[in-house]
## 1
Amino acid sequence: MRYAQIILPLNLKGSFTYRIPEELMPSIQPGMRVLVPFRGKKIYTGLVFEIHDHEPENFIPREIISILDEFPILPKEQISFWNWLSEYYLCSPGEIYRFAFPSSLKLESETYLKLRPNVAVDFENLDVNEMYLIQALEVRQLINLTDIEAFIPKKEIIKTINSLIDLQYIEIDEKIAEKYKAREVAYVKINEKFLNNHDLTEILSKLNKAPRQKDLFLLILDKQTETPSAYIKKSELFEAGNFGSLHFKALVDKNFVEEYYLQKDRLESYEGEIEEIEELSESQKLAKKEVDKAFEDNKKVLLHGVTSSGKTHIYLEKIEECINEGKNALFLLPEISLTKQITLRLEKKYGRQLGFYHQKLTDFERVEVWRKIKNNDIQILIGTRNALFLPFQNLGLVIVDEEHDSAYKPREVSPYFNAKDAALVLAGFYKAGVILGSATPSVESCYLARKDKLKYVFLGERFGDVKLPEYELINFKEAQESKKVSGNFSLHLIDEIRKTLDEKNQAIILHNRRGYANVVECETCGYVNYCSNCDVVMTYHKSANEMKCHYCGQRASKPKTCPKCYSENLNERGVGVEQIHEEVSKIFPDSEVDRMDVDSMRKKFAYEKLYEKIEDRETDIVVGTQMISKGLDFDHIELVAIPKADSLLYVQDFRAEERAYQLITQVSGRAGRVSGKGKILIQTYNPDHSVFQLIRINNVTKIYDYFLKERQKFHYPPFTKLIMIELKHRKEEKVNRASQFLGSVLRKYLPEECVLGPERAQIARLNNLYQFQILLKLPRGKNYEKFKEMVLISLNEFEEITAYQSIRKAVLVDF
DNA sequence: AGCACGCCGACT
DNA sequence: GTCGGCGTGCTC
């Protein structure tokens, strides 16, 4: 066993072979971090994936420099998980490594310069920059590349360094610095040897001439005697404001007071009271029993609980059982904003045993969670998808809440994976139980449940016997024909809103389109405002008074006249949420109407402020995008209106109907949570559309029957497996050619009907990159693995063409 | 990925 | 003539 396969934090295929030096042989193990040289002098933190004895044939391996960990930092379950991820999602282990580890745990060496020993520098022949650098190096032996920017213009740095290296005056050195530093907090105490009456009186009399110091001393003494076990923070002494650090320093100098430091967590943990959870209702108890039974049979559970049925209660019970067995639980949520409420609920019960992990933590905070998980200091972790990679020691339960949510598989970050599916696999390696929970499960999960791959548990009653909301479809076409409309609202819809307001209740209006108008168009010449980076029309945002591209974020001012023909007849087309908000405000001038979308929630605490406003019932109507479907659990919302429901269906995506159903159902769940008299109004031109009809009768089985039938008919998942390959490049010609080539290679290995495209992407150019797509529709089951092998072969063949190496490629498995 | 090497246009 | 642009090649 003299060689190790090492993963490097680079987007490179596969792993690299290094030789293990004799002295490291006894201690090296898979899952440990090591320092390895890679390409010249550069040093990376690699990860040992495998130890073996196969001598490489085509190259001479280099040696591992040193081992960074005493014990493997990555448990063996995680190593298996990574292997599965890279095979299933066709991504490199390096990508996973980069994604999984906080950057402080995978440091790269930094390049330093130093003078060569015993050189005589001939200053006469140096230019100014070279002279500066030599002089700087004479003062401080090592200089970091970024420090050089302070005295040499950026453009000339490389030239200067290269010329000094040629002259053999300086050389390059690589150093790895530990970046993570524990946070230290200063504490104070009275010097112990003076802690007796005699000495204390003496000190106080000595301090008579310095009253401030005396007061400070007395304050410390006071705090210390009051609770001798407590630690006194230095910072709290100055809160009163009468003392400065000078007074404190004087006391320290006189040796009366001691200052000391303790390492402190960056993550605040809950210190309040610990609360018990409420008892389960009858139907919850039944559901819980089914979950228990499934776990006994080693089956994973799909918990389908209608809105406010109390899925969380069941989660809590299972978590409790899990940690009572001495195991850890992982609670996954699709996004950070949702972690807050569940955290509030859990920390009352579990206090310090609870941790969180998500994209908003700083790097050092992530390292601290890593260490705590590694040392088993945290029993329950609440997190987003990246929490799957924490080094759990004995994971016993994984909960994936809102399992249908598309945030579990964002398209734009690599490695591309669906956290819901990955959670199932990870739990498998740990032999942990899994609960996928949702009020609107994904069609895929429902299919698995029907195939008995998941145990289906249905919770159809709201907690406390509260009734489910009622649905009503409003035929907008009819309303228009009988002239019973005002703008985008039928008079009936307006009446219903008014009724709700009159009863002092609140209403929610959903319109899932940002901005004020989709397009600003010139009536005279037809000009529309395109984004300069993308092939997309820019959306008009009235409140910010600008045009925005929703794909690259570019902003432009709104044209007053047509830039092409100077006509002033500019027409706004396509209704956005801002316009709906404006309309509602005009219809109900005496009501408080607020808007909730990413644009209005951008400011700090905007969300919190609006949340409080709604809670205090200062807000009467909330108009918003899909954002309002999540987390707004209030007691007095009785009406949900969707004035332009058709727009939810007209999206080019085979999941559009499923998404529409999920969004409508989720937002409906906000209504009548306490009264049981919630009402949902869906205004549409097509009240006969199957999706709307099925939502109205609210029959869960029939809805999924319908979705599954449609998917089967058009050969979409879960009946087939999809792989999307996207190619991007600045030059359209080049990607076009490349994608044609890749398409032909794929057709060589796969049946014709499996390969769709290549085609220009729906957004042909995004951020100045032209995109082409090839969609692979592969059969499920045994053949899938074979076909995927073929895809891999095709991709390798494609990569061998050097001209296509500059083309960016994304492979999205289970797209 | 990122860094070095190598080949062509815009400037002193 | 050079400087520096980026296309290409390679890393255990």
## 2
Amino acid sequence: MSSNLTKKQKISLNTALSQNGLRSTKQRSSVYSVILAKTDHPTADDVLTRVRKNLPTISLATVYNCLETLVDCGLVRQVNFDRAPSRFCPNLRPHAHFKCKQSGDIFDIALDTKSIESLHAVLPEGFSAENFELSFVGNSL
Amino acid sequence: MSSNLTKKQKISLNTALSQNGLRSTKQRSSVYSVILAKTDHPTADDVLTRVRKNLPTISLATVYNCLETLVDCGLVRQVNFDRAPSRFCPNLRPHAHFKCKQSGDIFDIALDTKSIESLHAVLPEGFSAENFELSFVGNSL
DNA sequence: CTAGGTGCAAAAGGTTTGCGGTTAA
DNA sequence: TTAACCGCAAACCTTTTGCACCTAG
């Protein structure tokens, strides 16, 4: 097996791809499956290593291209901390990120509707935001 | 004149530098003065262009080094949107950023104490943040 | 005088692109 | 069949670094 997607995941991938006029390939499935399998916010390079267990000949360029495709299709989110390598995340609900200074780990922080509203409330008249990014750096126990 | 710092600004620069065991140079003054002069969040390359009006021989590497020094001294903040070139900002008070999709302009969004508290309130038990970044993308009128 | 800073050029590091061959539909 | 995709390598772009010269203190 070149990927471990559930039937549902396979369907949502293929739907999203075909809605965008894109093909379903084993590279895209494998990359998607790796992103879903472990939500530890891997970099492209991490994804390469993991995908190669199933698809030993995949290239880094293809990983980047697949990730971009998945992000464009709205299946995956790209997370940036400063200028560090981009990380990728299958959590599509609005959430913040917390980076632990000690371990370097990145955690998702759930945001309820009320929090999201109060976030947008900081914007003065005349500003309307389509997206936001909220990230913290600190220590976790 | 190689820079247009006010007396106060000159003092705070020199104080910060000497507190960190660093020298006052005309390159550092000029870069600092450019950052203070126009708070439009210039990139390192923008800063290079502007500083060269006063200091035609300054190199891009020196601009990067000076900016890093100023950031380390706490006089300037580095602002990143995704993986776009870093931008620099003299606003030291806690604030968010808003990037206008149409113009590409970046605006500072002031944050009052209450907003900052409610931001931190999204963190679950066990997480304590030293820093946060909040940025919006959308349209402004 | 001398440690630290500058300018230059080269390297680094992440990401993107061009191209010839491969594959999904 | 054929447009889209892949793998490879080279290019790209921002940022950092090494080194010889210069300068603030």
